[in-house]
Amino acid sequence: MPQIIEVPGVGQVEFPDGMSDEQIISAIRSNSPEKPASAPGPLSQMILGQRPTPQRSALENIGRQVGLTGRYALEGGAQILDLPGALFRSGLGAMGIQSDLPSESASKLADSLGLPKPETGLERGVAAATRGGFGAAVPAGLAAQGARGTTGTTQGILSALAANPAAQIGGGAGGGAAADAAKEAGMNWVGQMAAGLAGGVAGGMVGNAAMNAAGRASEAVGRRVGLDAMPELKPKRMNDTELSAVLRNRLSITGGDWDAIPANVQKSLMTDLRKANTLEGLDARAAQRLADFRALEVTPTRGTVTRDPIQFTNEKNLAKTGANSNLANIQGLAQMENANNSRLIQLLQGVEGGRETDAIAAGRALSGNIAQQRDALRAAESAAWRDARATPGYRMPMQANVLGDINAALDDAGLMPFMDSRISSYIQALQTNPDQFTPQAYRNLQSMLSNTMRAGGNEAAAAGVARDILEQARMQPAASQIFNPGGAPAAARTAQQMRVTDPLPGDAMSAIDRARQATRAAYGFEDSSPLVRSALSDSANADPARLAKRFVIDGTADEAAQVARNLTPEGRQVVRDALATHIKRKALSGAADEVGNISQKSLNSALSSLGPEKLGLFFSPEDIQQLQRIGRVASYIQAQPAGSAVNNSNSGALVVGKALNALTGITSKIPLLNINQQVDALVSTGRTANALRASRGLLAPQAPEYGLLSNAGRGAAMGGLLAIPEDAERTKNDKRK
Fold first, then answer.
1. DSSP result, 484-514
2. Contact of 282 with 250, CB cutoff 8 Å
3. What pLDDT was estimated at residue 682?
C-alpha cells in the first residue's frame, strides 16, 4: 500500500510501498528547494522517529561523550558473546522462552544506568568503531591475564591470543567503523562484511604502526633522559660477550649449559636472536634443543625443538602422509627423517672409531693383559728364588716352628681333615726331621699349597690357610751349623770354620726374604679380585666373551674400575671401542648399520645402564658429551610429547596419502587445470615449510603463527563482523514492523 507523507513546503507526497526510511529521506532531500545540513534536520528526525537534537553546552557535551564511551565499553565487551549467545537464544526460542543477546542485555543495562545513546550518524559511526575496539580489547586482555597463571601449551595459546593488542584493537575499531559506514550507505550484509574485513586489516596495520612508533618514541625519550631500555632485551645492541652472558644465565636456570655448546653453534643461536632482536619470551629449553641439533648437524623442526604437541603431531602425520603419497613436495619431512636417522648412525659410528669391535675382542684384551701381569710377577718371583738358591746358606736348615703354626691354624679352622694328604705327609716329614726344613723345602711347600688352591673347594680353603701362615711367618736360620755338644771350647780350626759359616744363614735369609716378597706379590695379584681369579681360572668363567659381559658391560662401576686398572692403554682402547659398538648395536636393536633405525629408547637405555661413571673410565669427556647429545636429539625426534596425537598405526596417513594420489591421478588428466601441481606446491610452501622453520620456536609464544594480518583479522571479527548479526536482527524487526 502506498505511503503518504506531508512534506513542509511541498505538500503531501506519495511513496511506493517497500521503500525504506533512508530511501524516503534521500528522495525528499533531492526534491527539496533547500538542501538540509549535514546533520539530520527536524523533518528527517521526525520521519526516523527521532527526537530533535537538543542544543547542549560544552560541559554537557563532555559529560555526554564520557557516558557514550561507557555505553560502548559495555556493549563492545558483551558483543563478543553474541555469536554463541545467538545459538543459545535460538535453543531457548524453540522452547518458547524469549531472551536477549548479551549485547542487548548490555544495552539495557546502559539504559538503566542512564547512559546516553548515539543520535547522529557520526556518533553511530564512532559507536561502531569503539564497540569493535572494546570487542577486541576485552578478549585480548582476558587472554593476557589467563596466560600468567598457566603453563605449557595452554600458556602458549593464551599468549598468542593476547599478542599484539594494538593491532587487534585497531582491527576491531577499523572493522566496526567500516562495516557501519557500509550499512549507512545502504549496502547489504555482503558489502558490510567486505568493508568490515578491509577496515579491520587497515585498522590493524594502523594500530601496529602506532604501537611501534610509540615504542620508538619512548626509547628516544629514554635515551635522552638517560633511562635507556634494558639492553638484554635488544640483542642487536649487544656484543657477543654480553649476549653470551645473558644466554648462559637463561640456560642455567633450566639446567642447560651454554659453555658446553660448540662455539659455531653459539654464533648461530646469537644470529637468530639478533634477527628477532628480542629476548622477550625466550624459551631456554628450546634454545638448548636447537643447539643440540646444530651441534650434531641434524635437521630440526619446530615441533622437535618446541616439543609443542600440536605442532609435533602435525609434522609427524604430515611426514607419514607424504611417505604414502606420490606428491614430491610433501615427501620432504619423510625424507628428512630418513636423513636424520642416517646422520645419527653415522655419529655413533664416529664414536666407535669407524669400525666395529666385538665384546669378545675386549675380553681377549682383558684376559691377555691380566695374563701378562701374572707372567711378569711370576718371572720376577723365579728370578728372586734363583738368586736365593745361589747363596751358600740356601741349603742350611731354618727354624721349623712355622710348621706347627700351620697345623694349629688348620685345627682351629676345622680344615685339617681337608688338607691334601701329600701336603700333610710332607709337613709331617719336615717336622720329624727339622734339619730338612731348608729354604728349598719352604719353596717346595709353598708351591704345593698354591697348586692345591687352584682346585677350589675345601682342599683349596685348607691350603689357603696354610699358605697365609707360611707367608706371614718370620723365617730365621736354625742354630749354628757346627756340632759342639756342651759348648766346649773350640779348637782353632773349628773356630775358624764357625766364623766362616756364621754369616751364611743371614745372607741366605736376606735373599730368601726378597724371594718371599716376590712370591707374595705374584700370589696376591692372582687372588686380588674376582676379575683376576676368573681370568686366570681354568673354568668357563675365563671365556673372553663372558669376561667382557660380566665385568665390562654388565659389571658395576667398581668392577669396571678394576678392569681399567688391569688394562694397558692399548687394551683400554679396545674395551672403549667395544663399548661404543655395544651402544650402537643396542640403538639399532641389533640391525645392520645400512638398514637399521635408531631407537631413542634403546639408545638412552644403553647409556643409562652403563652410567656416566663407567663411561668416564674409558671415554673422554668429549665422547661422553657426544653420546649424551645423540641420545637427547634422538629423543627430541621420536619421543611424543604429552597431548600429541600422532597416527602411529599409519592407517590415517595411508588413507590420506592414497586419496591425494587418486585426486592427482584424476586432475592430472586435465592439463589446463594443473590441480595436482597446485596442491603439491600449496602443501610444500605451507605446513612443510613451516615445520622446517625451527629457529622460530626459540621465542614463546610462537609469534609467526599469529602475525599482523591474523591479529588484525581477529580484531576485524570482533569489530565489523559482529555488527552483521545486529544488522540482520534489525532487518528482521523492520520486516515484522
1. -GGGPPPPHHHHHHHHHHTHHHHHHHHHHHH
2. yes
3. 43
